[in-house]
Protein 1
Amino acid sequence: MLLTSVIIVLREVLEAALLVSILMSLCFKLGIERSWFKWGVLGGVVGSIGLGSQLGFISSLFGGIGQEVVDAGLQIFIYICLLYICVEFINHYYQRHAVSGTLRAVLVIIILCAMSREGSEIYIYLSAFQSLPHASVSLYSGSIIGLGIGLSCCALFYYCLLSFSLLRTLILGCMLLTVVASGMLLQAGKMLIQADLLPDGQLWDSSAVLSEESLSGQLLYALAGYEATPAPAQLVLYLFGVVCMAAVVLTRYWHWQRRKVSAKVAGYEE
Amino acid sequence: MTAAFRLVLFAVSVLFYMPAIAGKPEFEVAIRQHLFEPSVIVIPANTKIKLWVSNEDTTPEEFESYELNREKVVLGGQRSLIFIGPLPAGEYPFFGEFNPKSAQGKIIAE
């Protein structure tokens, strides 16, 4: 029970906390106030309990594939929100301005959705098994260890990102957000395949090189949605995610670069 | 191709797709005392199947398989549907994430 609790909680915490640490470090470097964080976490806790307690009803939706549809929907929604966030971060880098209410709201919504997805499973697990005799001590101590390891990994990640210069943190942060967001599309694809809304298949099997069960496999899963045996539909979604996000981010970057150059030229002419 | 024609094409393809969903072979697996029963499920290779997972325990379980790329929480007393395949012939282990030591099984596609 102890080890199972550590693994379950660690797996769920890592995924959401890695995303939060990337967003937090970028906000810190860009001078964006971080009051949204506490509201996101609060919303995430409420969302986890809400989603977890309603899972029976959600599962019965759409002829028994409600769980998959809601999970895929949340992940696609987070991808779109992260796309917006990357653009806003680049805008903020070139032109510091007061943080808009929309940006704050989107940050809260991302944390809320990411935490609810992961937290609902922890809520279901803890609420169901705490009533078993002799289980609660190992259940809670395991969960606290799992939570501690997950949060420590993310704190380390957060401070690593902060150690770079502003421009490097921005570039690295946008690249990481692209990987995380595209990984979410890959996982959404997995859910849609499980619900029979996308075709299944196996492109390759890399489990001999990097097993999903191994520690590095789990870390890569949390960061980039790693699958040892991806389906063609998942790869298409992943590539679409990367290309789309990279195109939007680079277009925004070039837009500001051009403006900088034309402003310089205008300055010389005067 | 007009938008209306595309809409008709989509509706027709959905209509043709619906019987395909209904026609998939169905298999059952139960969870009792944190064990899968039966623990070995033999399914036809290269065929998409519907696997119904009935959790007869009062506690929830997560049906999980790295080989099958599947994960689904099944609450206590609930019956859940998971689509599997089409799979090439072989063995595909699965386990219950909440009770990984006892809840283990495999799907054999042949």
Protein 2
Amino acid sequence: MSNPLLEVRDLRVEFPTRRGTLTAVDGVSFAIAPGEVLGVVGESGAGKSLTGAAIIGLLEPPGRIAAGEIRLDGMRIDNLPHEAMRRIRGRRIGAIFQDPLTSLDPLYSIGRQLVETIRTHLDMGDAAARRRAIELLGEVGIPAAGQRIDQYPHQFSGGMRQRVVIALAIAAQPQLIIADEPTTALDVSIQAQIIALLKRLCRDHGTAVMLVTHDMGVIAETADRVAVMYAGRIAEIGPVAGVIRAPRHPYTIGLMGSIPSLVGEREHLLQIDGTMPRLNAIPTGCAFHPRCERVFDRCQRERPDLLDAGASRAACWLYASGSRKEGA
Amino acid sequence: MSPTGRPEGEHRSAQHEGGPASAGADVLLRVAHAGKTFDVSPPWLARTLGGQPRRLLHAVDDVSFDIRRGETLGLVGESGCGKSTVARLIVGLYRLSSGSIFYAGESVAALASGNAPRSLRRRLQMIFQDPYASLNPRWRVADIVAEPIRAHRLVVGGKAIRARVDALLSHVGLAAADGRKYPHQFSGGQRQRISIARALASEPEFLVCDEPTSALDVSVQAQVLNLMRDLQRELGLTYLFISHNLAVVHHVADRVGVMYLGRIVELADKKPLFATPRHPYTRMLLDAIPDLAMTGKARTPVAGEVPNPLTPPPGCTFHPRCPHANDRCRSEVPKLAPAPLAGMVACHAVEERRIPIVAERA
């Protein structure tokens, strides 16, 4: 990857509390190339949504970026003043959230919301912006866009609302879209439609996507690469096919095995005992070591960084050269 | 007892009609033509002054199925298809509008009116989706689990009750010491274990599980599903397992019913249902799941959405989305009938053999 569009380096997100500072995202680094879809997967509390929020500058106080840097097209965006960040958000980075009903203002027609977004970011008159809005609604697959543009969010179904949110996100043709659980609130048949739509739009416009989700199935279908997060850190990152077919990190292996499949018959699902640690009780060394079946003494003492592990990179001492290790 | 590999009566479900008298010895729960309508009319004043009509929502319409002792019946469908309403009808949280439900030959109608025999209430328990909402936050876990024991006087004496609660907690993988804590001190998965312990406290035979793992992360879901399967083995439980997640249903169920807009459109043993789905809606659902094994393959998204249940389309309610629909489908409601080879399907196209029987999937 020669010229990444988005580059995140050693990102740390902290929440100061009365009882000390909690580190929710700790030393996360990754890059997204233009037109690439990076999936970020993890269980609740892994820090995946916070990573996305930090990138678009929507961390809720008291949460703050405590260290690291975020670059968009080479320019640092993590330390920009509010106004400058506001201009980037929407124009160069679009956002899609889980619940389309909270992303839309119930008091304005969707046309008005689209026109407002378009005119905020692009130099366009009212009439032209409205024509563009109808075009966008058509592009995201809303039938009879010309009539529906004057309707209000409550007049749309959940799937149609999410299409409107996607239209808003791509209105100013951003280079990057951060999609946080965009299909989680939708039924499976609608989910398939929205994923197909996202994929088509990215292909047509060359938009890069950071797709945050807990659903490995969605990642498998959509992403080019995937980052698996655990307790605020990336446990494994690599090409989707590699991570899904041959996961390297013991956590990824457990995670993949715990997903019920439609193929084959299994008496028991693979089970990782215990739960993800709370932020105020992150174990020393590798945060996964108390739940890991292949733990050894180094895991308890030293925290692993991402190491080469075949097709992907895994933060696991099993892949350190010189430590005991088994053939792949 | 054994939840899988039941050689006897593989296709018995295909022949059920009629009342409880004809119930086979192994049928534990029989739902016969059950229906539930909700009155969603505007208020009286608006109706009288504004001339607005009464509106009825048919949440469940003519649903029939049997559950045999020791098996797991999975019920799948998208939101609003009526699967949770079926669960609530069975345990008596809703009153039936039409049809009947019999548990071991006894009508459960009395459950909803509150004067059911205690024994019936004890034998049927429910596990809900949201373990944050279904446990009383002001009660200690030990009291939550002990409540059914006290209510049904299953064990008498404080010490004996405490011993029983401890045993239940350790049975679901919690420590006896956890009984002194409050629900907020537990994670989602642990709370669902508490819900299960409470359900088991009354020594039931039958558990209605309404999306029991939908609020949980996958690794925690795996723990709870494994636990439920072990408990079924040990205690000989019978499950009605409701989920929107086909992969989860595939993992837990012996037989599967697929619901669409208040009706069962297909009911079959798990294997044929997933290998050779017959109803176009079942096929659509199966095509729509992102499957890890299919990495890279594009699935075919299906056009359309579930129609508004207040104004369902005439005839087969699936016809606006169905590629095989013809005039008959647009006017005549298909009945659930035995399909060629296996299972039961409510589809004119399948009955008329307009849809070819597909070869095994995957």
